[in-house]
Amino acid sequence: MMPLSDNALLRYDRQIALKDFDIDKQQQLAAAKVMIVGMGGLGCVVATYLASSGIGQLTLVDPDTVSLSNLPRQILFTETDCGKAKVEVAQHQLAMRNPECRVNIAQQAFDESSEWLAHCAEQQIVIDCTDQLSSRQQINRHCFATSTPLISGAAIRMEGCVISFTWQKDEPCYECLSHFFGEPIGSCVENGVMAPLTGIIGSLQAMEAIRHLTQYGSTTQGRYLLYDAMNFSFTSLKVKRNPHCRLCAYPQ
After folding, report:
1. Pick from 185, 176, 186, 118: which is nearest to 152 by CA?
2. Residue 233: CB partners within 8 Å, gap ≥ 6?
3. If the chain, 252 residues long, is cut into consecutive pieces of 10 residues, what is the mean pLDDT of each piece?
4. Quick check: is 16 in a domain?
5. At what angle do helices 133-146 and 114-121 cross, to 10 degrees?
6. What does pTM read for this prediction?
7. Position 10 in a domain
8. Residue 234 and residue 147: Cα distance in Å, rounded?
9. Least buried of 74, 194, 215, 242, by fewest C-beta within 10 Å?
10. Which domain holds residue 218?
11. CB burial class (10 A; 0-12, 13-18, 19+) of residue 199?
12. Is residue 200 a part of any domain in this protein?
């Protein structure tokens, strides 16, 4: 790993000063490659905090353009950005926040193709910030196939959740959970979402990414964190691997 510059040591002084979080861990962030799929309310928050925290390379994936209804939640965009590609605007905004963070962009949808399988394999972690069950399942399949750690988050109405997958023995995959959800009930377009909720869940996803990349803090293997904004409550559930999962139950 390249040594941190004097400017970086000053920029990240408050992180380096944390107990047991030293220069070596900051260097690990600087060397990290992270892909964020979905640049909506969650993705904007995740990207902002990871770039600001010193992640070396981000890859942003989203096919959409900015619309007026995005602005309450998607903090990287302004009204003058309406009609522009989300990933292009985000790339520009993140460069102003931290020019040392390399930001790659893909204005296209994540799908089942081998191209995305290869992109996942190149990352140290993938962060799912999409808002459709089918998209989350696709990302889960590629990350499982490449053993790429995955952090999945969701926010809808006044509820949110975060779970990490690192593919350890007996650890579940997203498919193990998704059979609990029943038929898809639509995205936040149909159901609504409170703007600050995406900030809370996105911040938790960014924190999980930093913890994983630096091995800082305790493991969250198999823990599913639920947030109920109506009651101001967090619930942590232990989720086990589904022995009948159509993805990870098959012999490897």
Report:
1. 176
2. 227
3. 88 95 96 98 98 98 97 98 98 97 96 93 97 92 96 95 92 83 59 94 97 90 92 94 86 53
4. no
5. 60
6. 0.94
7. no
8. 29
9. 215
10. 32-238
11. buried
12. yes
